[in-house]
Amino acid sequence: MEQREEAAETFRIALDGVSLRRGHREVFRDLSCGFRAGEISVILGGSGAGKSTLLRVIGGLTRPDSGAVRVAGRDITRLSERDMFTVRDGIGMLFQGGALLDSLTIFDNVALPLREHTELSEREIHAAVARRLTAVGLPETEGLFPRQLSGGMNRRAALARAVVNDPEIVLCDEPFSGLDPLNVRRIESLLMDLNRRLGLTLLVTSHHLASSLRMADRIVFLRRGGALVGTPEALLRSADPEVVAFLSAESEAGSR
Amino acid sequence: MIGAIQRLGNRSVGIVEELGRMTVFVAGVARTLAMPPYRLRRIVDEVYDVGALSLAIICLSGLTVGAVLGLQGYYNLARFGADGSLGAVVGLVLVRELGPVLTALLVTGRAGSAMAAEIASMVTTEQLDGLRMMSVDPIDYVVSPKALAMGIAMPLLNALFIVFAFVGGYLVGVSYLGLDGGQYWTSLEEAITVADDIAGSLLKSLVFGALIAVIATYRGTTSEPTASGVSAATTGTVVTGSVVILVFDYVITALWGV
Lengths: 256, 258
Ligand SMILES: Nc1ncnc2c1ncn2[C@@H]1O[C@H](COP(=O)(O)OP(=O)(O)OP(=O)(O)O)[C@@H](O)[C@H]1O
Ligand SMILES: [Mg+2]
Hints:
heterodimer, A: alpha/beta, 6-stranded mixed β-sheet, 9 helices, 39% helix, B: 8 helices, elongated, binds adenosine-5'-triphosphate
């Protein structure tokens, strides 16, 4: 596993020398990494390594102090919020906490992107929403409010919302945390299916090593000195002390 | 010494920056209200929320304030043998002053604080960022309907407060202290002019409604994404809102004599 220089064009999303301070903490220092179109990239790293922040930077929600962030060929660090909306039309995001609107039902939450940005009829919307909710394993929750569902169910509904209008890039912050093994498999196969069938570019942050290794075309390991990028096999062979520590802690936890 | 001057300078720059951000915020609200999509459904829902939250407290307070005015007015007027004009005194004080101001203060405490808290908790749970990621402007979808609803609800609640206070004054003055009922309503009616008193009352409540709307939604959207951020936004709305209402009440009264 090594840091490789590649031509920026091969990447759908590329960070170039990104630095970000939050208060006294330096979250990223001169971070450069790229994510290829049509690939599943899993972002690994300890708690507080900056995985959520990285997704927020790519979504344009958090502006880095310096450096460039190219998404679909445009440097989004220079875009106004209004122009950002055109970039985000092609991006779906699952937030770590779900971020569903708690004043709307699950159905209305998932339908929101369709209602706002498409001319679909109410019947078509209903069909699309039902299909997504079934795919995440929540077929009978349409009339419920987010507060009536568990945390894991909320995040699955939020995932349905993130992919409901077929974006070409999906950013998933911890889609597996708090899920039972059955639902881990379900979400995993949903994401892999979207990727295989529709050529989705997928960025997934995770603590869940086993599913990461199963899904990932590429692994981005966030650590203090920057990002390590490589295939899952390369990660397992890596001699980097932080990676080794991460992996051995994970296998211990897994064998218990 | 230099440190103090520097701090003062930083403070002033901070205040100017804050005013600038607030102006941008208000401009954004105005723009989204003026341009489609017009979220009628959202606005109606929000008006209902503000109204439902404030209805009971407005009616009850109106009744009580009217009753107190009835008592005070009666005892003071009776000393000059003028207790026949109780209706006029109750009417004028309520329509021009107490109605708009007390309604605004009550609504700030009830619906304004709730509005700030709701938006602030949406910030903490990343709901507003979630909207942004769906290319939906949170100002357009969340803030503007709430702000407009506050502006619509305030004059209605003001009218309700005043009517209930009239009834409160009547109950004390006529039913309890035995004044002539017909005379109470006649003197009230004669004292109040539509062009002056009612229009002034309306103007005040519209201005107060707009001020609270801006303060509550601004404090909510700019809150820190923490539990203490939510509580700071809530108390901040009540404190700032109340002071601003009282200041503007004086300004409007001084400028237009209402
Ligand atoms: N608003 C903020 N103010 C100060 N520090 C912040 C802020 N936001 C994030 N940070 C810091 O940035 C670092 C990265 O946070 P982030 O949420 O991206 O971590 P993470 O990798 O997603 O962790 P987890 O796995 O626990 O979700 C944290 O150490 C945090 O302290
Ligand atoms: Mg995180």
